[in-house]
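Dear colleagues,

For the upcoming journal club I promised to circulate an example of a predicted protein-ligand complex. I picked one with S-adenosylmethionine because it came up in last month's discussion. The inputs are reproduced below in full, followed by the predicted structure.
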Amino acid sequence: MLFKWIKANKKIGDEEFDKIYPDALRSKADTHFTPIQVSKTAARLLAPGPDVKVLDIGAGVGKFCTIGSVCSKGYFVGVEQRKGLCAIARGVCERYNLTNVEFIHANITDIPFEAYNAFYFFNPFMENICPREKINDEVELRKELFGEYSGYVREQLAQLPKGTRLVTYYSYLREVPPNYALKRSLFDNNLKVWEKL
Ligand SMILES: C[S@@+](CC[C@H](N)C(=O)[O-])C[C@H]1O[C@@H](n2cnc3c(N)ncnc32)[C@H](O)[C@@H]1O
């Protein structure tokens, strides 16, 4: 029912929606999961029509991908380094019979980007430079990883075809290559839409 309501644009608050996740993670939701309205807007900007495969770089419990999969015409793939969060995201897909979405348990540095034509980036590497914000102890966090991971994303994005779309949310923009142009800024300039030149 929940995702049918989301699809039908019924008003549902983030606090209500986040009840589908385990209690221990709900306290992290404000900082780490994209709010419903932002997810809908970002997904529709990334996948305005069919045949778009969106990669969520650091998918967490899958809030952005699952909402995007019912609110747009795109196919959503979330890559998540924490096995536990990936399992929760897959569980939500199963429970709500969501198609058009899947989750890969992997580090982003093991994912080649050429199979995708749109990308979502909600500041996934911040935990490495801001340990107060860490989600849990499941993975190694190190200051140097912030630069390493951002560099990998920037290099991959730089090589993609003209017109490739990228949406960043609360990002320091280290991952945006110089050959991407800023097209729009929304949600108090926190959500930015970029396109490869
Ligand atoms: C801020 S959360 C965003 C969740 C989701 N994109 C959303 O908006 O609802 C960032 C996630 O990125 C994951 N992450 C961080 N570094 C990663 C890496 N190198 N490879 C894969 N996932 C990573 C973290 O484990 C965390 O779950």
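Two points we might discuss: Strands lie at 53-57, 75-80, 101-105, 118-121, 165-169, 180-186, 191-196. The two ends are 41 Å apart (CA to CA).

See you all on Thursday,
B. R.
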